[in-house]
Amino acid sequence: MPEPGSDPYLDMRRLVVPSRRDVTIFDVGANIGQTIQRFREIFPQPTIHAFEPGGDAFDALRVNCSRLAGVYINNMALGPQPGTQEFIENTNSDMSSFLEPGDECWGTVKRRTLVTMITIDDYCRQHCIETIDILKSDTQGFDLEVLKGARRLFAQHRIHLVYLEVIFGKLYKNSAQLSEIYEFLSERGFDLVSFYKIYYINGLAKWTDALFVNQQYDI
Fold it and tell me: Domains of the chain by range and CATH?
């Protein structure tokens, strides 16, 4: 068995209740389905709710994943409150964000579109989802806002693992700091499992992925 901290997906499999086969995963910022494929390799029968607001990325996501059993794709965003918000699509789709590009962002803005946004709490209420085993968020600096939309589930200890991107550099304007994300999750009973690969620009750390676990998860 690999050491903890070497592979986030193996850590998630280790931490999810072993007897559970009906693992519920939220893939927020699914892009074209890369993470969905990895989750399906790690878990035998996952139920995955994927969210991608970008038009071109969602078209590719639909081609790649719409016929997969247990995968539900949504052309919408998750955020702190329901409504619409401007989504900034980049020529590199994995750099698209609700935040304005920063000095270290690459690619160029190709389109600005108003997209539908709902909260995790509202989506779960609408679809009768009581618990989330893994909440993965990769929304290019918007991840803390995604978490804020799940206040009810967090308060009820209905989310077990949170796996998200943490940005250190100036990729986007006004992106959440690590300290803000850590404080938000720590106040809700989460412990840090590990940081994973750190990405550098000009010898300085710019972003990484982090996994958090709630020991009080109520299944």
Answer: 8-214 (3.40.50.150)
